[in-house]
Amino acid sequence: MKNIKLNVSLKAYNTFGINAHAEQFAEINDVAELMELLHTHRPDRILGGGSNVLFCGDVKGLTLRNNLKAKEIVHENENLVQVRFGAGENWHECVLWAIEKGYGGIENLSLIPGTIGAAPMQNIGAYGVELKDVFVELEAVHLRKKTRQTFDHAACEFGYRESVFKKKLKGQFFITAVTLQLSKKNHKLNTSYGAIQMILEKNDVKSPDIKAISDAVIQIRQSKLPDPAKLGNAGSFFKNPVILKSQFDPLKLKFPDIVSYDLPDDMVKVPAGWLIEQCGWKGKQIGDAGTYQHQALVIVNHGTASGEEIWQLAQKIQQSVSDKFGIDLTPEVNVF
Questions:
Q1: For labeling, which of 59, 73, 124, 276 is most exposed (least CB within 10 Å)?
Q2: Catalytic residue among 51, 214, 236, 306
Q3: 236 in catalytic set
Q4: How far apart are CA 68 and CA 30, in angstroms?
Q5: Domain boundaries, the chain
Q6: Does domain 71-224 have CATH number 3.40.720.10?
C-alpha cells in the first residue's frame, strides 16, 4: 500500500515523547483505506492520540494511526441527541464541541487526553462520570476477518477502566466510530466529586451549567496534571486499585489516614496516587524519569528518558507499594 512508510519516528505520536521507531507506519483517514490495507497487511498495533502508550524501544511490524474524523447526529428528540463521532477525533475537542452545542453528559470528562476511539476501550472516567454512562454503540473492523461489526453497550463489557477490547478482544479490532447519547436539556449535573464544588464556589458560580462544570474540571486537571507538550507524560500511569473490604480493614487499622471509597459488593477503591505518595515517590526523579511534583500518580519524562527507564521506574513504584501495603498496582498505560 502506497502510504505505508518505513522506519518512522513515533516521538510525535506518543505523549511521553519517546523517540521509538516503527518498522512500518500508516495513517488511516477513511474506512475504505483501512479495508484496502487489510487485504495485504495485518497491523501489529493501533495508535490513537498516543496518550496511553509507553514505547520501551523500537517496534516491529506495522503500526497504524487512527485518523478517522466525523461528527454526525444520527438521532435526536426534544430531550436527547445521539452523535456519531469518528474514532480519530480528539476527545477533549469533541467535549468542547458538545458543550458549545448545549449537549450535556461528558463535561466532567473535559481535558482527558486521547481520541474518541480509545475512550470506550479504556472506559475513561473522571469526577463521577464514565464513558459507559453516555455510550450507545461503536463500529469496528475485525483486523483478521476484515468484517465490520457493531458493538452495543452490553457487548463492550465495560468495567473500571476496562472493556472487552482490553481483555478477550485485545488487538483484534480497529474502532472506526463511536456513538454517544447526550442531553439537550435538563442536564444531569455532577458536581459532588473531587474539588468541583469548591472550584465553582471559588469562581462565584451559584447556578452551574455544563460549561461551568467543564471549566472547573479543566482548572482542576491543569493544576494537578502536566501539559504533555511541556512535560512528557501519559496522565495517570496506574489504575486506582479496587480491593476486598476484608483486605482493606487491616490496612485501615495500620494506616488510619488511608484514603478510600466504598464500592458495591464489599469492595473498596484506594487512590493509587495516595499509595505512591506514602511510599515517598511524589516529585522523585531518577535520571530524566520521575513522578510529577503535584501528583504522584503521573510518571513524567523530564527530557530524554527512554521508555525502558520510565518502565523501570514504574516497576520500582509497584514494588514499593506492594511491600508497604500489600496492594498490586496495575498500569493503565499500554507498554510496548
A1: 73
A2: 236
A3: yes
A4: 6
A5: 5-66, 71-224, 232-335
A6: no
Q: Judge whether 124 and 89 are in contact, CB under 8 Å.
A: no
Look at residue 301 and tell me whether its pLDDT is greater than 70.
yes
59-66 sheet: strands from edge to edge:
5-9, 21-28, 59-66, 45-47
Query: What's the residue count for the chain?
Result: 336
Is 332 noted as a catalytic residue in this protein?
yes
pLDDT at position 178 over 60: yes
pTM assigned to the model: 0.85
Confidence tier at 2 by pLDDT (50, 70, 90):
low
Per CATH, is 5-66 categorized as 3.30.43.10? yes
- Report how far residue 73's alpha carbon sits from residue 44's, in angstroms, rounded to the nearest whole number: 33
Provide the pairing of β-strand 267-269 with 71-76. unpaired
| Separation CA 209–CA 122 (nearest Å) | 27
Cα 118 to chain centroid, rounded? 7
Q: Is 150 exposed, middle or buried (0-12, 13-18, 19+ CB in 10 A)?
A: exposed
Q: Which fold, 232-335?
A: 3.90.78
Question: Annotated catalytic, 148?
Answer: no
Note the pLDDT of residue 89: 97
Q: What is the pLDDT of residue 177?
A: 98
Residue 196 pLDDT > 70, yes or no? yes
Burial class (CB in 10 A: 0-12, 13-18, 19+), 228: buried
Looking at every residue in the chain, the average pLDDT score rounds to: 94
What mean pLDDT do residues 226-243 have? 92
84, 89, 137, 161: the catalytic one is 161
